[in-house]
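Per your request, structure below.
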C-alpha cells in the first residue's frame, strides 16, 4: 500500500507503481489524477475535512484536532 497527499504521477510513475506487490495507492482529490483506468488507484475526498474546518473556524472553534 502507498499513500500520498497529492497524486502527481509524472513520467514513468504509473509503470513503476504498477508492481504486483502494490495492492493499492491512496491519494487525496486535491489534484485530479490523469489516470482514470488505474485499478490500484484509490482517491480519497478531502471535502469532509475542509467542511469541518470551515464550520469550526466560523464558530470560533479549534481546528487543531481535525482528523
Amino acid at each position: 500500500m502507498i499513500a500520498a497527499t497529492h497524486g502527481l504521477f509524472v513520467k514513468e510513475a504509473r509503470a513503476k507503481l504498477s508492481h504486483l506487490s502494490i495492492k493499492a495507492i491512496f491519494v487525496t482529490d486535491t489534484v485530479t489524477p490523469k489516470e482514470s483506468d488505474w485499478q490500484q488507484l484509490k482517491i480519497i475526498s478531502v471535502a469532509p475535512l475542509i467542511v469541518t474546518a470551515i464550520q469550526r473556524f466560523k464558530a470560533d472553534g479549534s481546528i487543531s484536532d481535525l482528523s
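Residues 2-58 form one domain.

Regards,
D.
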